[in-house]
Amino acid sequence: MAKPQTPIPSFKLDSEYRSVHKEKTATSSFGMDSTSNLLDGGFGLYSSEGVRAKIGPLKSQFYRIGFCLRGSLDVDCGLERFTHQAGTIHFNFPGQLFSLQNKSDDML
Predict the structure, then answer these.
(1) Smallest Cα–Cα separation from 90: which of 107, 105, 68?
(2) What's the number of CA atoms in the CB half-sphere (13 Å) around residue 68?
(3) Residue 56: how many CB atoms within 10 A of its CB?
């Protein structure tokens, strides 16, 4: 007998998404780290401060661009896994399966 499948959670970029990707309110003054508001109701710019050690799998209903300046983490984009490390960029599009894990302590 087949095991019932659990639906993959899907999120839009709004003030409630903050708790999905951040552990707590960041103390950084970078971008929008200290607020859950969005620019023009739909854009956000955040640092890696307070990013959860593991996120997903989930589907984001927004575009995501990630820059890594230091450290590393594993990012799943669709069915592919990449090591996001210093000097790399990753992109996600709406509806794409996304997760991250294995975040190094020095990731920035």
Answers:
(1) 68
(2) 22
(3) 19
For residue 76, the model assigns a pLDDT of 93
- Whether residue 62 is contained in a domain is answered as yes
Q: Are 83 and 71 in contact (CB under 8 A)?
A: no
The reported pTM is: 0.78
pLDDT in tens, 28-50: 777 777 777 777 767 777 788 88
* Residue 29 lies inside a defined structural domain of this protein: yes
Separation between Cα atoms, residue 30 and residue 56, nearest integer Å: 24
Counting every residue written for the chain, the total comes to 108
Annotate 11-44 with DSSP letters as a single string.
E-SSGGGHHHHBSS-----STTTT----BTTTB-
Structurally, how many domains does the chain consist of?
1
Residue 5 lies in a domain: no
Whether 75 and 90 have beta carbons less than 8 Å apart is answered as yes
Which residues of the chain, if any, have pLDDT below 70? 25-26, 41
